[in-house]
Amino acid sequence: MNRRHFLLCAAPLTALASPAAVWAQKSLAAAGDIDVDAILNDPQAPVGGNPAGDVTIVAFMDYSCPFCKKSSPDLERFVQADGKVRLVYKDWPILAQSSITGERLALAAKYQGKYGAAHVALMGIRGGNISEASMTRAVKAAGIDMNRLEDDLKVHDADISALLKRNLAQANALGLEGTPVFLIGPFKVAKALDYDELKEIVADFRARIGK
Q1: Which residue range forms the structural domain that includes residue 9?
Q2: What is the pTM of this model?
């Protein structure tokens, strides 16, 4: 892989229960006011993969981003194949009004345990500024209970809005400029990673922490 494609992140990010936690906190002290625990362990943020994984990937993505859509299938496939990666989804709607619509639909689906299905469905829609109707059809086709989703959008409106604001604040603190961005150990990768690139970076990080 061309190493020019990624930079050292402000703070190494891995599951805080792992041996790399001390390393992360030491780097954090030198990096400034970035709350690593809040990024890794926001209780409202959807989590996929292995919750007890030895490596955490934090993915900042937007449902209107063509590069996110290019990378998303490989990310999901890699996390499933590896079996030891914890994936934290950071919904970051920055490109269009449709981005906000998509993020809210996916986050509302989380309350019925279907965030992953909604996420995959929305990432599978081609194009950028997608209509709300197209997004709703995709989510419904993924097996989401739409009546419950509508209820959850209303009941959990404040929580969803607060989470999106926290994601924005974290992205700003990390100096992110666009999507997708992947935080993997000490690496901040601002590009659409494919399966082999994900595998290489995770293997590099595991080698660094002796896993």
Answers
A1: 3-208
A2: 0.85
CB 61 within 8 A of CB 185: no
Structurally, the chain folds into a number of domains equal to 1
Tell me whether strands 55-61 and 181-189 are parallel, antiparallel or unpaired.
antiparallel
Residue 187's beta-bridge partner residues? 8, 184
Strands 47-49 and 6-13, by their bridges, are unpaired
CB 91 within 8 A of CB 164: yes
Give the pLDDT confidence of 3-19 residue by residue, as tens digits.
Answer: 333 333 333 333 333 33
How far apart are the C-alpha atoms of 74 and 123, rounded to whole Å?
12
Which helix (H) or strand (E) is 185 found in, with range? strand 181-189
The CATH code of the domain that includes 142 is: 3.40.30.10
How many residues in total does the chain contain?
211
Beta bridge partners of 47: 88
φ, ψ for residue 181, nearest 5 deg: -130, 135
Structure tokens at 105: 């639909």
